[in-house]
Design goal:
Keywords: Coiled coil, Hydrolase, Protease, Thiol protease, Ubl conjugation pathway. By secondary structure, this protein is α+β, with helices and mostly antiparallel strands. The chain contains twelve helices and six strands.
Length: 347
């Protein structure tokens, strides 16, 4: 795998993924984080175009029920690109859902890209993604500004860093497909007509999670769904039509249930608008470099008579006091027959 184009790591965050989708010109869909794959949760999000699953990479899949699904090496109806770029798995998982959808409006940029690469083999599709200036630029626009070396990513560190990977699950031509750019091809998990794929994918994801030791909880699941504001607005319009017809027939006092539903949906629209404003603000903060601001603050404090030195000394004193307090709590726990390790977890 190459580092073509220097692709950055991006966060597993629905606001980031939604911003990335809009950045490449796709409208009408968004990404929602989901905490359960039960029927009720997924029913509320329909239509669901695909799921993006994040997990800790352990190398090639061991023998399991999941990877018994056959790999389809050549299927012209499935858009599959091998991942040839380091750090690009998030964007490739998103593209796997967008480019295999029959209902999402891709926009001019992505439509042209799909038409250009559709006949390429999987590896060449991966290289085409790596060489797309638009896709790479949008992906990298969500990198964090970090001028300091993070010891977790320090190549000289002897500690082995955990690697995480994104894959996609999506329905294609009545079958459930698993699209993982590190595999040789898409896995076909069998027939799943209509929305039945949402019921089929749950046990598959649970089986993947069950392979890990009990303490592993670092998983993330997100769904690519229709624009929620548009969904709510269409429901409001439909209910208002029903309410109008009912009141014309039975009088202005009729339709209390419909009035309540309309009010709830309008509340949902307000909440969604607030969530989007928050996500937009967070995405701006992700791109902003605060180091010059911090430098100027420290410089200003240093220029004031001994103020910075006093703050440093205050911090040292506080750290010593907290360390001494921790020792005392450990000693008290040991004297009482408790486990000092429990205290260490919170220090």
């Amino acid at each position: 795998m190459s580092d073509t184009g220097n692709w950055c790591l991006i966060e597993s965050d629905p606001g980031v993924f939604t911003g990335l989708i809009k950045g490449i010109g796709v409208q009408g869909v968004q990404v929602e984080e989901i905490y359960s794959i039960d029927k009720e949760t997924l029913e509320d999000l329909k239509p669901v175009h695909g799921l993006i699953f994040l997990f800790k990479w352990q190398g090639r899949d061991p023998a399991s029920a999941t990877n018994q699904a056959p790999i389809e090496y050549e299927n012209p109806d499935v858009f599959f690109a091998q991942q040839v770029i380091t750090n690009a798995c998030a964007t490739q998982a998103i593209l796997s859902i967008l480019l295999n959808s029959r209902t999402i409006e891709l926009g001019e940029e992505l439509s042209n890209f799909k038409a250009f690469v559709s006949d390429f083999p999987a590896e060449i599709k991966g290289h085409a993604i790596s060489n797309s200036d638009v896709i790479r630029a949008v992906h990298n626009s969500f990198s964090r500004s970090d001028p300091f070396i993070n010891e977790m990513n320090d190549p000289s560190s002897k500690e082995k860093e955990d690697l995480f990977h994104f894959i996609a699950y999506t329905p294609i031509n009545g079958c459930l497909y698993e699209l993982d750019g590190l595999q040789e091809g898409p896995r076909n998990h069998g027939p799943a007509p209509g929305d039945s794929w949402l019921e089929k994918v749950g046990p598959i994801i649970q089986e993947r999670m069950a392979r890990y030791e009990g303490g592993e909880i670092r998983f993330n699941l997100m769904a690519v769904v229709d624009d929620r504001i548009k969904v709510y607005q269409e429901k409001v319009a439909a209910y208002e039509e029903q309410l109008k017809a009912l009141q014309e027939k039975e009088g202005p006092e009729a339709g209390a249930w419909l009035k309540g539903e309309i009010e709830n949906l309008r509340g949902d629209i307000v909440k969604e608008e607030g969530k989007r404003e928050k996500q937009a603000r967070e995405n701006k903060l992700r791109r902003h470099n605060f180091i010059p601001l911090i430098y100027e603050i420290l410089k200003g404090l240093a220029q004031e008579d001994g103020r910075l030195e006093g703050l440093v000394e205050e911090g040292r004193t506080r750290a010593k006091a907290e360390a001494e307090s921790a020792k005392q709590r450990k000693a008290a726990a040991a004297a009482a027959g408790g486990a000092s390790e429990d205290v260490d977890m919170y220090e």
